[in-house]
Amino acid sequence: xxxxxxxxxxxxxxxxxxxxxxxxxxxxxxxxxxxxxxxxxxxxxxxxxxxxxxxxxxxxxxxxxxx
Length: 67
Fold this sequence. Notes:
Layout: H1 3-35, H2 62-66
């Protein structure tokens, strides 16, 4: 096994690893939105509503500030 073959296996393994990470992240986003814990579609409007007088996306409670 020469270095070229080893690099090919490593490239394939790393690409497969990144695909698994990408699909698990997408699953996390959809499942969190379906459960109602987070609504990630609201965060898409941050770039549009970035004035100082605009409403925040989420309110921060006092318990979250302490943590």
